[in-house]
Amino acid sequence: MIAQRPVPTIDAAPLQLVFIQNPAATHFPCGVFMLTCAGQPVGTLSFVGIGPRQARIGYDILPDFRNLGHASRAVGALLASAPGFGFDLIRAECRSNNTPSRRILEKTGFVLQTATPFSANGSKRSVQFLVYHWLAPFAASRPEYESCVQ
Length: 150
Prior knowledge:
Layout: E1 2-4, E2 16-21, E3 30-37, E4 40-51, E5 54-61, H1 70-85, E6 89-95, H2 99-107, E7 111-118, E8 127-135
Parallel strand pairs: 5-6
Antiparallel strand pairs: 1-2, 2-3, 3-4, 4-5, 6-8, 7-8
C-alpha cells in the first residue's frame, strides 16, 4: 500500500516522504519511506517494529545527495511522527567509523546507549558497533524506559 503522508519540514526546502507500508507485517508495524526532493529521488528511510511501541530505523541517501541535510531532516520528520505510528522508543545502529551517520543520530536527539567491539571480515581496525536510542519526550517517565533516560 502506498500512501502520501504530510510530514513536517525542518526548513524551507520541501522533502517528500512517500510511505510504503508492508501489508505482510501483522505483528509489529514496518515500512519504508521513499525520499524525494523537488521530484528527484534522494534515498530511503525505513523502520521495523522490534517490540511493543519500539522500532529500529535505517536510512540511505544516494551519493549525489549526501551532506545536504536530507537524512537529518527525514529522520527528524519520522521522529516527529513516531507516536502516530505507535512508537515511543526508536533504536538506530551504526559503526563508530561511520561519522556521517553518528552525526545524524546525535543531531536528531539520539543518545548513545552501548558500544561494543566490532570486526568485519577479520579486520584488525578498532571499530565499535554503536547502539543509539531516541525516546519520545512524553515516554521518558515510564518505568520500562528507565535505562534509556540519561
